[in-house]
Write a structure and sequence with these properties.
The chain is of the alpha/beta class and 447 residues long. It folds into 2 domains: 70-80 and 344-446, Alpha-Beta Complex (Aspartate Aminotransferase, domain 1), CATH 3.90.1150.10; 84-340, Type I PLP-dependent aspartate aminotransferase-like (Major domain) (Aspartate Aminotransferase, domain 2). Helix content is 34%, strand content 13%. The protein is built from 12 helices and 13 strands. Strands 1-7-6-5-4-2-3 form a 7-stranded mixed β-sheet, with helices on both faces. It has a 4-stranded antiparallel β-sheet with strand order 10-11-13-12. The radius of gyration is 24 Å and the shape is globular.
């Protein structure tokens, strides 16, 4: 069985219509040096559905599930417990709707949970307004830079060295077309002097806290310096649970907050789909990307919800649109909203305290190992240690022993020689004392 929808006759008719003698003629502009022959991929012959299923199952079996071993990976994606009630509730029919909730009379369930989600995000981040979500944290950060460029009518963006490298690369790809993007030197475990780089051409300063190495940053002096020069401060949060314990970015002077919400309601899922959080000051509302749901009353005075703002729509505003974002992460947003509602404010605070306590206990155990140095002083549930040897082969060796020991910094910063011995570890409420003992014992033997 072939998985191609076109027959030979279909292809022949299409080629005849466009005047091409064969398929190869369609690719004649591609130089031979760029063409890789099919034989180089060593692909199997055509197979039936059962054979393909069996082959895919064998490939999947090579993965080690996060719950099947002591797991300490973080660096932007975190393993938290998601109550089974979340998966049950997101399947309720009230939340089923078509692609976009333009017709409020048939999408009240969707519109209401988006409204509740926006309220939750605004409260978490300490901001005045939040949108109905974006794709993920990295694209939310890029959208924040574009928004700052529009507001200030400047192009220059300064990125902290502590910003997750994947986020920084996304900003450079998306926003670099509209102005220079400068990244400060990577300084694991300490804050760089980013204030000295701010000038009258700066549109925004992007700072992550806790940063990619786990360091908690004080945003106030950076916000004050940026505002003095007419620039905006964009605060980035990759571990949203941290805001259950730390002071929100809005209270520290941030103008825009871009965050990843995966930690609440959403599993690791091999890297996605995730849910981007985006919040800002009310005065910047019209420049905010994405859509905004609002509360109103119907003709009979009953409470209802509508799609209040969607100024990014290309088919309405075209080149004047604030963004080319066409949707929001609906299902992930719903899972986030339900999980956070189940936790409540006190529950989130308890969860955050538990995360910090777990990470502190693990950091103490690792710092006691000969040759291991704790790099991150102030952290939430993630920190960085320096090993006496390269971290990547150590992580590989521990994986073979059934311990997923974290993320080597060299994986995120392959060009930074200083990153080779650095290991980024995260501990959450899912980790046990047995997990800690297994990591310490395996690491002690490996180094």
């Amino acid at each position: 069985m072939r998985y191609l929808p076109l027959t030979t006759d279909d292809r022949r008719a299409m080629l005849a219509k466009i005047g091409a003698p064969d398929v190869d003629a369609l690719f004649r502009d591609v130089p031979n040096s760029a063409v890789v022959p099919l034989s180089a991929f060593n692909l199997p012959d055509t197979q039936g559905e059962m054979e393909v299923d069996r082959g895919m199952s064998k490939m999947a079996a090579r993965n080690v599930a996060a719950g099947a071993a002591p797991f300490f990976c973080g660096a932007g994606a975190y393993k938290h417990h998601v109550p089974s009630a979340v998966d049950h509730l997101i399947q309720r029919s009230e939340f089923l709707t078509s692609y976009t909730p333009y017709q409020p009379e048939i999408a009240q369930g969707t519109l209401q949970y988006l409204f509740e989600f926006q309220t939750q995000v605004a409260l978490l981040t300490g901001m005045e307004v939040a949108n109905a979500s974006l794709y993920d944290g990295s694209t939310a950060t890029a959208e924040a830079v574009l928004m700052a460029q529009r507001i200030t009518k400047r192009g220059k963006a300064i990125l902290s060295g502590g910003l997750h490298p994947h986020y920084a690369e996304t900003v450079e790809t998306v926003a670099g077309l509209f102005g220079p993007v400068e990244r400060t030197k990577v300084t694991p475990g300490s804050a760089e002097d980013i204030i000295a780089l701010i000038d009258e051409q700066t549109a925004c300063v992007v700072v992550q806290s806790p940063d990619v190495f786990g360091l908690i940053r004080n945003l106030r002096p950076i916000a004050e310096a940026a505002h003095a020069k007419g620039a905006l401060l964009i605060a980035v949060v990759t571990e949203i649970v941290s805001l259950g314990l730390l002071e929100p970015p809005g209270a520290q002077g941030a103008d825009i907050v871009a965050a990843e919400g995966q930690s609440i309601g959403n599993g690791l899922n091999f890297g996605g789909p995730y849910v981007g959080l985006f919040a800002t000051r009310e005065k910047f509302l019209r420049q905010m990307p994405g859509r905004l749901c609002g509360e109103t009353v119907d003709a009979e005075g009953r409470r209802g919800f509508v799609l209040t703002l969607s100024t990014r729509e290309q088919h309405i505003r075209r080149e004047k649109a604030t963004s080319n974002i066409c949707t929001n992460s609906g299902l992930c947003t719903l899972a986030f909203t339900i999980h956070l509602s189940l936790l409540g404010e006190d529950g989130l605070t308890r969860l955050a305290r538990l995360n910090h306590a777990k990470a502190s206990a693990l950091a103490d155990k690792l710092a006691a190992l000969p040759g291991v140095e704790l790099v991150t002083g102030a952290f939430f549930n993630e920190f960085t240690v320096k090993l006496p040897k390269a971290a990547a082969p150590v992580v590989d060796a521990l994986a073979k022993k059934g311990v997923i020991a974290g993320v080597p910094a060299s994986r995120l910063l392959p060009r930074e020689k200083s990153a080779e011995g650095l290991l980024i570890l995260a501990a959450t409420e899912t980790n046990t004392d047995e997990d800690f003992d297994a990591l310490v014992a395996a690491l002690k033997e490996a180094i």
